[in-house]
Amino acid sequence: MEQLKEILKYNEKFVKERAYAPYQAGSRPVKKMTLVACMDCRLIELLPKALNIKNGDAIIIKSAGGMVERPYGSVMKSILVSLYELGSEAVYVIGHSGCGMHGLEADKMIRDMKNRGIGEETFAGLENDGIDVKEWLCGFQSVEAQVRKSVSIVKNHPLLPKGTPVYGLVIDPKTGELKPAG
Length: 182
What we know:
Blueprint: H1 2-16, E1 33-38, H2 43-51, E2 58-63, H3 74-84, E3 90-96, H4 106-115, H5 120-128, H6 133-136, H7 143-155, E4 166-171, E5 178-180
Parallel strand pairs: 1-2, 1-3, 3-4
Antiparallel strand pairs: 4-5
């Protein structure tokens, strides 16, 4: 609650002083690009700087690991909205070295959930609903392979506009260096 109070107090001053003015931009990406990237906090400012983009230049979709896991999940839906409704013309899937999803073990995460109060009955209910929690919470073993898998899901989507370029990159969160995922 204290953090929220601090945020709201700061925001009141931010708005009153019109500090938002340098960030005003249109809702359509000027550089006509959509990025799918990890939610890692090290990439908040680094990723746009490394790509030479600023507010209004690109659509950025953030998810754990920067993964496109399913052809009909929310990440893919966001990509399609960006392409059809917001004017993007290219998709960049960007993973990063040192990602928390690399090597993530579902069993450990499930133990962590139980330690924070999620009961066994909740997991049993999910199983009854046909959800394989271990599979869903599993990370990946290779950032490059995961980026390639995500690129493949996007490229092979039946609703992707014909000719849309889809690229896979890996960024180093220490230096900002970008490399093709292969």
